[in-house]
C-alpha cells in the first residue's frame, strides 16, 4: 500500500513539473479518498482562479492604456467629444463717472502753537523759619492725668447735653453702652397689608433721652424700598416702648437707637 502511494506521488510531481501553471504542489489525498468537496478540493483549483485573474487584469489594463494613449484619435474619428467652437459672449460694464477723492492727510501732524499764560503766577509765600533762643523753650510739658481728663469730659458732656436740644443730636454718637429695651411693644400688622399678603422689613431710628424715654423716631430704610405701608405702625411701636438710656463716661446721654422690625405673615 505504501509503495502505491509513493508511485502516485512521483507521477504527479513529474506532470506538474512539466506543465506551466501558477499552482502549488499538493498531495492527491482528495483523489485517493474520492473527495469532490472541501478544503482539499478547493485548494487544488486555486491556481486556476489565480491564472484567470492575472490574465483578465492584464487584458483590461492594456485596453484602458490603449484608449488613453489614443484618446484624441478616437474622439476625432467618432465626433462625440467635439470642442465648442461658438464664441463666448463677454459683457463689460463701462464706468463713465469718476469721483476725485481729496488728498490724504499728512502723516506728521503740525506742532501745536505754544500757549502763553495770561498772567504770571506769583510764587507762594511760605514764610521764614525763626530761630528760638534756649531761654524761650519750655523746660517741661504739663500733661493732664486720667482723672482730670475724665472729669473734664463729664463736665463737657453734661454741659453740651443740657445746652443742646433733641434735634441737634447727631446720628452717630460714641457710646460705651448702647440703649436697649425694657418693654418692647410689638407693632400691629396693617389689615390692608395682611389682605394683600404684603411682607417687609423697616429700620426705625428712635432718639432715647437721658431718662430712657423715646423722644422722636424716623424711618431709615425699607425692604422693599417702595413699601411704606408699615411706617406708621413701626414708629408707633418704638415710641410706645420703654428703654434704658445709653451710657458714656458713667453718665446717661441722649443717643439714637436703630430698631429693625420685620413684618411677616404666619
Please characterize this protein's 3D structure.
By secondary structure, this protein is of the alpha+beta class. Among the domains are: 17-77; 166-263, 2-Layer Sandwich (TolA/TonB C-terminal domain), CATH 3.30.2420. The protein has eight helices and seven strands. It has helices at residues 2-18, 29-32, 39-44, 46-69, 71-78, 146-163, 191-196, 231-240, and strands at residues 180-183, 200-208, 214-223, 242-244, 246-248, 251-253, 255-263. The strands form three sheets. A three-stranded antiparallel β-sheet has the order 3-2-7, covered by helices on one side. The chain has a two-stranded antiparallel ribbon with strand order 1-4. A hairpin with a 2-residue loop joins strand 5 (246-248) and strand 6. It is elongated, with a radius of gyration of 59 Å. Residues 160-166 have low confidence and may be disordered.
Q: Main traits of this protein?
A:
35% helix; single chain; three-stranded antiparallel β-sheet; TolA/TonB C-terminal domain; 266 residues
Overall geometry comes to: elongated
Give the helix level as a range of percent: 25-40%
CATH architecture descriptor text of the domain at 166-263 = 2-Layer Sandwich
Strand content is: 15-25%
Give the CATH topology of the domain at 166-263. Answer: TolA/TonB C-terminal domain
The end-to-end distance, rounded to whole angstroms, is: 113 Å
Report mean pLDDT, rounded to a whole number: 76
Strand order of the largest sheet: 3-2-7
Query: Rounded to an integer, what's the Rg over CA atoms?
Result: 59 Å
What is the H/E string?
HHHHHHEHEEHEEEE
Structural class: alpha+beta
Within CATH, the superfamily of the domain at 166-263 carries the name TonB
The total count of helices amounts to 8
Number of strands: 7
